[in-house]
Amino acid sequence: MNSKEAKIARNEGVVRAFLKGWDERDVDACMAQCTEDMCYLNQPLEAIRGKENVRKMIASIFKPAKRVEFKLVHVFGHENKVITERVDQWDWNGSGTWQMALKVCGMFELTENGKIIEWREYYDNEYWTKCGGPTLVFDEL
What we know:
Elements: H1 3-23, H2 27-31, E1 34-42, E2 48-49, H3 51-62, E3 67-78, E4 81-91, E5 100-110, E6 116-122, H4 125-130
């Protein structure tokens, strides 16, 4: 494996660790993969800037979720970018069944030292809301 391939593999590993934190509903595991000045962008919502604000957003989604599983369909990297195609499954009521299976494309940009600095998500926000997803708009941010 050459240095370019090693860097891509490292970056894919960082993103997989970030997503595994979601499966475990462990905000600290997620945030350990991120820079202090990271940015989360979910079109058409306003960008959420700064690690602490992104932490609050993730924690607010974990709070009502009883179980979460991010099923990776595809993961591939190029230079400092990693793209994921996923199905994010949510159990909001603790029934043991998924109330939502959200198809998501995520784009992650990483720093030279392998930390997530930008995270963009593309999915159907109407479906998210209709299936019980909490708001991602915060007055306190």
